[in-house]
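Bug: token stream looks shifted between consecutive jobs. Job 1:
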Amino acid sequence: MTDAPVSRRAETDHRLGFRTLGRELTGEPLTVRGSFPGWLAGDLLRTGPARFEVGEHRYRHWFDGLAMLHRFAFAGGEVRYWNRYVDSPAYRSARDTGRIAYSEFATDPCRSLFRRLVSAFRPPSFGDNANVNVLRFGEEFLAMSETPLPVVFDPDTLGTLGVAAAAPGQLTVAHPHLSPATGELVSYATHFGPSTRYRIYTRAAGATEPRVIATLPAPRPAYMHSFAITERYVVLVEFPFVAVPAAIPLSGRPFIENYRWKPKRGTTFRVVELATGRELKSYRAAPFFAFHHVNAFEQDGELVVDLCAYDDVEVVRALYMERLLSARPRVPGARLHRYALPLDGGDTVRAERLGAVGVELPRIDYARRNGRPYRYVYGVGARNDGDFPNQIVKVDVARGDATVWWQPDSYPGEPVFVRTPGNEREDGGVLLSVVLDPAAGASFLLVLDATNMAELARALVPHSVPFGFHGTYIPTQMS
């Protein structure tokens, strides 16, 4: 596969981040400006879509593009770079036949009524296109999307090794959690059928099968991209973006277009005990939508859930490729919100906004703060309402104030927090973000001091890295 042509105009703005990348590099030394911390020794692993068309056919949504893995390796202040496509059925079909053969989030090649009737009696024909998130769990390195089969890959070569244990349903999340109490992987899957259910499950490192710990009825399942966890509870937040399961196979629409915004339903918080699988309680709140949870914890008799909220699902529509490739796409911004659920038997959900800046693709000091009280969240945001994300933000959720890194006409990705060894401050570390610089026609890896958001260094990538979603940092001693 080769790089797709792009107009000169597109090379000077955000649209360069949606240009197909055909180039694959192996251990390319990167030019460094500034100084990467000498203690930074390990790998930043990321995934994201990198091919947005096959032959004459284009994928319709940002979430549909074929997955590519990226590796930035740090040692002695030097940085090397690898990138490689995930060798999925969807990728092989595109490479070998020149056509789109597998359904994605908003792209569905299954057009005939006969094929839809057949598909009604089997799980969707997703192609393990793991373009959303990466995770180390035990000895496995996993690339994930919302399909039930996570991809196992080699962290050194980025080669695809196979698939891991399947989730117990046809739709899952690419944001599983590690239990703060046991270290087990915790997630949930939607099992579509005559009686559609949410299945919350755990998996111990090395286990070949998940263990379902709770089954919740979901006659009108909601689209939920992530969920929250504390030391004792799992929290599913059912936004009023719901589907009629029986209608999906014969609808003639791509997967996400079977969901409908029903604000009169409100939003439901469903709380499940991790130890027993018992649904503790459901709470009702005003309608809103979110892709990403930030954190959850218990404090002063409340279960606190922080997330990046939208008023409605216009953001899903805004991320269709046709709209993103316009000269000035309008992308709704997420607002950092806190919802407090009473654990003493009350029903009233207390809601408040945290800070004034928009935040998406949020990260925290996950290893120490996940499921526990915390103070700082990092993410991307927009300087002006409706802009494509163009700044990195740090929000102090206790005070509500924010610190920002910004470079004119550049577009940063998710900032991954890496703690400085021996530093006990919650923000004692650095942030790693892949930034698109359209003027240079390329991307760079940025390192910021997480305490004051000052730039420490950047490593120049010899091509533009398509906009991706999530990644993880693996220190050398864990490799």
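Job 2, same session, no restart:
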Amino acid sequence: PVVPFVRRGTPPVVEGRFEVELTDEGRAHPIFSGERFEQSLPPILSVFPGAMPKPAAQVLAKAKTPSGEHALVVVQRYGQGKVVALLTESLWRWSLEPREEDIYRRFWNRVLDWLAPEKEELQPFEVDLFAPVARVYLGEPIRLAARVGGAEATAAEVTCEIRGPDGRTLPFRMTPKTITTASGQTLPGYELLYTPEQSGNYQARAVAALNGKTARSTPFEFLVRSVSAEGTGRPANLDLLKKLAESSGGALVSPDEIGGVVERWAGEARQEVRVQWKSLWNQWWAIGAMIGLLCLEWTLRRRFNMA
């Protein structure tokens, strides 16, 4: 579920020599921001086509092929986590040419820096939304938590906009509360306990307002599963039970009548013959008698010089 794209039925890999172009999101993203990346990116020799980015994902770079443009670098936030997907197996070739070595090293340094955020990563006014789980059952509440501007900006008014499977978006007020991050840190933040009423895919986004400014978090997606039929109580099928009782020679009674039926049962006397046997090898006296007879035989043979 953390993969930021969906694959279609296309060939697994396309090989060739393809140019790489940054998207508008890529030029503004921390991974590719900077003059060195904006000049030009080295070509690649392979690409995995057919990747359709999810609604909350961002395509930072594309590969130009004869069949069209294909996503090359896709990123997405998942609550407190981040995901980077590289849809090529030839990116390491950037380091083979001396003029491209700096780009290859800087690319991976920035990817690692972006994937490993610090506690103070949030800007003075930025909101982040997350939850401990991404899948719940119908009728089970999900606990959505948000933090604004790190640990300082706690005076903001935060609402959570939740879009359900029917396409409707409903706002919910989040209450200030101390939250626990995935690393175990406790920070002042906001919380919403939401109980979904429909099964399907949901998308939540936190909106914070402070001093006339508004900040929105990246969407957080979660799945609501319907309860299986095995775990759902259903009324008894009396017609079916009655037919089963008649076909088996029994009778259908209500729970209140069970006591009377048991009392009417007449016990029937029955005699049984049981045979029990025991092995002599399991009796200590039998083994002792056998050993004694063997000793007696040996003594007599020795005394009378019998072979």
